[in-house]
Amino acid sequence: MKKSKIKFFPSESQFDVGAWFSLIFIAICFALLIAGLNGCSNDSSNGDSSDDDTDTVSDLDPDSNSYADSGADLLSYPIIETMQSDCYGSISTITCGSSFTGQDAEYKSIPASYTDNGDGTITDNNTGLMWQQNPGSAMSLDDAIAGADSLNLAGYDDWRLPTIKELYSLMDFRGEDVSICMTGDCDESLPIPFIDTDYFSYFEYGSDGPRIIDSQYVSSNIYVGDNTIDDQMVFGLNLADGRIKGYGTTMMGQPKLFMCMYVRGNPSYGVNNFLDNNDGTITDNATGLTWMQNDNGEGVLWEDAMKYCEELTFADKSDWRLPDAKELQSIVDYSRAPGATDSPAIDPVFNSTEIIDENGNRNWGYYFTSTTHASYNFDAESTGGWAVYVAFGESLGNINGDGIWYDVHGAGSQRSDPKGGDPAEYEDGHGPQGDSVRIYNFARCVRGGI
Length: 450
Prior knowledge:
Blueprint: E1 4-5, H1 12-29, H2 67-70, E2 87-88, E3 93-94, E4 107-108, E5 114-116, E6 121-124, E7 130-132, H3 141-150, H4 164-168, E8 216-222, E9 233-238, E10 243-248, E11 250-251, E12 254-255, E13 263-264, E14 274-276, E15 281-284, E16 289-292, H5 302-310, H6 325-329, H7 338-341, E17 354-356, E18 362-364, E19 366-372, E20 386-391, E21 396-397, E22 406-407, E23 414-418, E24 446-448
């Protein structure tokens, strides 16, 4: 299974061979007219006919939009496109392929596909997950957990609080980080949130707090690590600023409030199924992706991370790429964290390079993705200067400004770093919680997928 680069199309010869094979097979099966094709199927394992006429992934035309009907249902954990369609240079949009090659928008896989059921629910046609459309009012974590047991919606009573991987399946990187709007006047109708509001139309900026970026959707994943400033953190997805963060469950002595959107269906979504191929690669049979077992071994700039993967030939394969944000987040293991398991937040079948962190302690790094973390900006030419990364080590921040770095967002968070510059310019951190800015991050290459 291969995630196809946009510029490649099936060759004419591929269709010719397939057509001749189909004609011969029809003659053997039925010896009837071509009209009988729909009643014929081939089970190569035992020669028996079957009513299952589902295409294999290799049958899919990578230039079609039929994945929701044929490709995604072959996988228990299909990774949906980020939907990012623009390419970016160091600061602003560029023509795809002109430079900074290997980024998110140059590849395509399974596009998002939703159905509004007209009963207060939205079905994701790729993942098999059904979502509550209207999250209602903000609530505490305890109330969100209890609410799942009592919810009866559209005739279903098996609703649950989503995992962070289920929530992240909705992430739409056509969105723009609105953090700049905290320092200036913004027309809230102008920025684009990180969710498809054609279907999830109840999204509002500032829905669970006083700031425009307070649109934090809670998950069922409690952070297992320590070195935090909170007694308990839960992972949430911020659809206003486009990040996964660990959030304290209390604020100023009161329960912190979150938005909550319940889900049902496909209990296998987000569950990995890793296979060690014994050649330095790991295949996840749940997603169809094959990963490098080792990372690149050193922190590099975003452009160099993409170049490393694009030029890599390994295990007789040369179609490696830097993963997009959703692909990389899919291999996070949220049951692991440096403070809990003395390991990065990834299955131990993978090898990860150790670092010495901002506190001078042993830790693990941040890993770049091919996805740009676009920002809403009053200067329309300066919207793409930061690239998305996933933290497999502690997600550190100098929150008190005293040089003591806490795990403010948790191993498994998704944040972003500048695509260039000097980390020394951010020696005190960045943003409200003093996020560590390293600029030079790791790469773990991937290949395959739909």
